[in-house]
Design brief:
The chain is α+β, with helices and mostly antiparallel strands. The chain has helices at 6-22, 115-120, 139-146, 198-209, 239-242, and strands spanning 26-28, 43-47, 56-60, 68-75, 80-84, 87-90, 93-94, 103-108, 125-129, 132-137, 153-156, 180-185, 192-194, 218-220, 225-229, 245-246, 250-258.
């Protein structure tokens, strides 16, 4: 019988037990912010690959080191993002995203629509409202309701360019809200900004780099950042609402698992 080194065995067991606690690999999706790409209750697996633009990334939520978030990296360090009437532009190029991307719509109707009509047409989030229904849907699923007699009109619930967004991280910038945003450059480590750009990044620098810009004429970033958004674009708290994500908090790429 082969002799077992007891010390080696104990060390191996300890490593096995502690690694999952240090960096979890499997997650359950608790909210609808990524529907319809990832559904509430889905189980995903995280690889340790470094996310690239358009990947679904797993990261530690800034300010809460015990909470992991899942969002799509829509802009990486060195990119410039702009959102114009919900359409995302990166470095002045319109982005083509998966057909699962959802937005909010209003279905104008005086008819009561049965739950099964929504679920049979791929809509999981909907609510009765005065003179109709509020729904979250991708373009393909909403087409059904655009072509039925019992719905008078389908209206995208897009904010106006000058409409205020109450919980918006960038609320100080006139004309910026969830659907009209930027342009905003996403800084990378070593980038230098001048005093006229401080207001745009002041809170990011204070939160993540621990620096006060008072009295400075320029500032060099210590860290690289990215910009994350949920695929359920009108029902997601993301970088539009709590700012940029330091790349040091990004842990890997999410791949779809099972429910």
């Amino acid at each position: 019988m082969k002799e077992i080194n007891l010390t080696t065995a104990i060390v191996a067991i300890l490593i096995f037990l502690t690694l999952p606690a240090c960096e979890p690999r499997f997650f359950h999706i608790p909210t609808s912010a990524m529907e319809g790409t990832l559904m509430t209750g889905d189980r995903i697996w995280m690889s340790t690959d470094v996310p690239q633009r358009n990947d679904i990334m797993v990261f530690i939520f800034p300010g809460d080191m015990e909470t992991y978030y899942v969002k799509r990296m829509v802009a990486a360090a060195g990119d410039t993002i702009k959102i114009d009437s919900t359409v995302v532009y990166i470095n002045s190029r319109k982005q083509d995203y998966p057909p699962t991307i959802q937005h909010q719509y209003f279905l104008q109707t005086e008819t009561s629509i049965r739950d099964r009509v929504f679920t049979d047409n791929g809509i999981r989030e909907y609510a009765k409202s005065m003179h109709g229904y509020m729904v979250f849907s991708n373009e393909a699923n909403i087409e059904f309701f655009e072509n039925v007699d019992f719905v008078e009109k389908v209206r995208p619930m897009t904010m106006a360019a000058d409409q205020e967004d109450e919980y918006y991280f960038y609320a100080d910038f006139e004309g910026w809200n969830r659907d009209y945003f930027g342009p905003l450059y996403i800084p990378k480590a070593g980038d230098v900004i001048t005093k006229d750009q401080f207001d745009r990044y002041r809170e990011t620098i204070r939160q993540h780099e621990g620096e006060d810009l008072t009295g400075l004429s320029e500032y060099q970033f210590k860290k690289s950042y990215c910009f994350g958004m949920g695929d359920n674009r009108h029902n997601s708290l993301d970088s539009r609402y709590w700012g940029l994500v330091p790349m040091e908090l990004v842990k890997g790429v999410a791949t779809h698992g099972t429910r």
